[in-house]
What does this fold into?
Amino acid sequence: MSTLPIATFAEVRAYARTLMVRHRGSLALMLSLYALAAVAALVPAYVIGLLTNDATSHALTSNRIVDLLDVLASSSLAYGVLSFLARRRSYILGERVFAELRGSFLLSVLNLPLLVVENAGTGDLLSRTTSDVEAMSRTVRFALPEWLVAIIQTLLTFAAMVLVSPLASLASLVSLPILFFATRYYLRYATPGYRRERISYASLAGTVAETAEGARTIDALQLGDRQNRRIEANLRENFYAEMYTLLMRMVWFPISESAFALAVAATLGWSGLLVLHHVLSVGAATTVTLYVVQINDPLDRLVSWLDELQMGQSSLARLVGVSGVHDSRPLTGPEPADEELRLHNVRYAYGEGRDVVNDVSLVIRPGERLAIVGPSGAGKSTLGRLLAGTDVPRAGTVTLGGATLSDLPLTTLRRHVLLVTQEHHIFLGTVRDNVALAQPDASEEEVCSALDAVDALAWVRHLPEGLNTELGTTGHDLSPAQAQQVALARIVLANPHTLILDEATALLDPRAARHLERSLSAVLEGRTVIAIAHRLHTAHDADRVCVMEEGRITELGSHDELLSLNGSYAALWRSWRHETS
Amino acid sequence: MPHLPYRELPDANPGTPPTRSPSHYLAWLARQQRGLLSLNAVFGIGWMVSQALVWAAVGEAIDAGLVHHSPRALLTWVALVMVLGIVQALCGSLRHQLAVTNWMHAAFRTSHIIGRHITATGDALTDEIPAGDIVNTVMADAMRVGGTFDSSARFAGSIVSWLVVSFILLGTSVQLGLIVLVGVPLLTCLTIPLMRPLHRAQAAQREAAGRLAAQASDTVTGLRILRGVGGEDVFYANYQRQNERVRLTGVRIATPQAGLESGQVLLPAVLTVIVTFIGAHDVMNGQLQAGQLVSFFGYTTFLTTPLRTAIEYVISVTRAYVGANKVLRIVRTVPTVRDGATRYQWPDGFTELRDERSGVTLRDGRLVGIVSADSADVVPLVERLGRFSADMRGVTLDGAPLEEFALSETRRHVVVSEIEPRLFSGQLREELTPHDDRDEAAITVALHAASATDILELLAGGLDARVEERGRGFSGGQRQRVVLARALLTHADVLILVEPTSAVDAHTEERIAQRLRLMRDGQCTVLVTSSPLLLETTDEVYLLHEGRAVTHGTHNDLVAQCADYRRIVLRTDES
It folds into this structure.
């Protein structure tokens, strides 16, 4: 199993920079609004300083109070309005950026080479699609804007403090080294803890999902207690994970909070001394102290969002990583001369293992019905994948009309050869959407006749909304057999010249399967059909039967020829048809 | 990471909650952790009150220290500022710790209760509530229930600190004290209406975002098919359409969200302006000192915090109520089948299990085939034999109603393996023998019988390999054989296998048919199938029509005598 790549720090930074540059206008507007709001927020403390000065020099008059309170009221109002506008902008921008991020991630997913998808499995990709996108949502919509705002507020408040009195502001800096070291320590130990928390919640969700979906099996096999123990174990792990990060915060919080208190006390004491030495006015000391109290808030947010940002960065790396995988398949390439599929001395092995397809040569005649039979593990499905161009042989060639399969652009390949496996998936959407997956412009008649070709039209007509019935996890539930019929209807509608059916009717009951195959072959007259099947009637109905054993083709010929050959196919057939006893 | 010296969560027994109403449920939870909640409130109060009192010390430092030129007084009050700061830091940290603990207790107890329930109700629950909703309730609603226990201590702190500030002000000015005493609750009530449009917009966005996430997961789950057959463009266009919809619902949140946040700052500012205005006049008239004015300004800016906390608490209670309602919807479901009057005990060896309505009799030691033209026909019979049906009339074990045996006994003695049973994630060994009977030799025999030894060879780690969620790593045929081995390993007295080989090839099917017979020799086994390879090995076969046995005999006899049977099993009409 190969895994999907994760972007490097430099790639993530470059990606973030591109995003920022693309939205520089809105970003600048948002930050300016925030800066203006931050300036407005600085006024009240200054006004209080002026009031204090007037009070201590007994210069306070009614008019002065009204004037100053006018300023206080209007600056508060300005702050309210500006911060409203700034926040609104920031939410709107966050939604836009996040929407772009989601969209471009899904586009990368949709462009992943088939082989990469097959090899990496859906698990990793699914967790990127769900939990990493979710983590990014918090980062992009809340953490990042809040953090940028906190920086602006911190800088502007400090600037104001320095403007009032550079000397008095010095004391406010005492908290910085404490905050720096405490936070660095905290981030180093807490971040893996938050990751562990996320993983522990994902496994709880997994166990609960598995338990709810498998309720019947759990009941039948009396697995209730065991599943309950598993849920308890998950909860216990959730608890430990939470306790760990809590412990980290229990070290960090008192230290950083005390540092904030220290800054206030130190500034008050220091500026007080300056007042006593007639270097500073009482009002200025008051204002500077109020500013220190005020700066603690953005400073706190500045450091508190760091863990979230760090996690966001690692999620972004996993999202951007997917976009780095490119299809090795060319976008343009040769056009096959005809429809003849040809395997020449083909070998295939998974990883370093032994060849599961071992020196196979086979010419498939256009328009024939070929059945591939053989015991499990004989390499039938691998052969199917090689014929469909999903996998590339280790040695030897697979050609279609003289062109090597792996040189064909994906769109060309799909027009010619399509593979349907036992694996079925019903997508969210209507029956029509599911059938017309690749042919969105197909007419209702075309969709109906494809469904008819797989014996599905009757039951589709009986669905609550017929063709427009919503399917998928939230809609109408189809049986596995019905899902398989939909999968087949899909490729009937796609209408390639060669169809490879790998156990594509295995989930239907035998009679229905045979009936389906017969109506299908009527529709597919003239098309090449390669059927990998375990039910021997499929072989019986085929033009040629290919028997595979241990990676090799051991028998090849028509049903009657193989029967007269009296080999393993004949033996199996007789037992199937109850002719031995 | 090490285990911590904390009392483990969850408790072994989460208790039995009242299911009458969400309020009863929340009250019950609160009672379970009342000690922790009270302690948390103490620190919540200490934390908030010390924040308010810092302003008193700052004011005194200005008046006694700066205005009256006393370095001593300055130092004393500065020291008090520091002490109050440290008290605030310590109380705040302990408050946080207890808040998280309270949250966990409530949330995990709720998850645990749901967990216990879903493992015991069978499919009665999933018939009513989709699995996705159950996951959501555990992951989100239980957390919402916990959330209110997180914020309750801060709420207590808000109330007390608001009263403390009001009384301090009353001590110097009745007018100012009354303004704060009345103003804060008034402003809170004024802010609450701002929440309603926000909540509506958030709910709309959650729904739209949920649909988008489902669409993305759907695309990824079906990606192999999508990349194989095509249709990426359509999917991308659909996704982008919904993506844009989600963005717009998000934009619709922006105004009420920004409004609420700015309102939470702007409304208390009204209080600040009024208090400062009156205070400044009092200073002018000599009734108040300059430092006290600074304190008053400080108090009113501080009051933003209790105000915000009160609003947060109201939100959290509403959410907890909604969450508890969803939790109760799950907890209220009852299983379809439950023990009634248990009068009999399973015998050591039984003679026959009989279903009157279909006319099928299972005798001990026999391998029985059940064939029907329509596979749906057999389902009610299987449900009755396995006691999954609520209507058990006419099902008897050696003459005694099967209903009157203990359910757990019946489950142990009669095992039904349906079409597409579930595989769970875990070590293969444990998934094969979930009931702690991990005899390697027995597992090997069962895997051999299910013709599944080749799967073991392919897996790195053999029996220790991990089975993925739902057995996703296996092909359909592999999954079916593993599940068959698991069923065989139950060694049940009556083993009912529904289409056990539908996804395996004919060669393998034939092998399984032979080995199954050997392995289950002397035990009662039922094969619901139409495969001639399996039926050939049976002792007797029932042919069902519309749920009733129409004929009964050996496979060979039925092949020879019954045209319907031949048509179904040998498909003679068409070849």
Q: What stands out?
A: The longest strand of chain B covers residues 367-372. Chain B touches chain A through 173 residues (CB under 8 Å). Confidence is low (pLDDT under 50) at residues 1-6 of chain B. Residues 232-284 of chain B form the longest helix (53 residues).
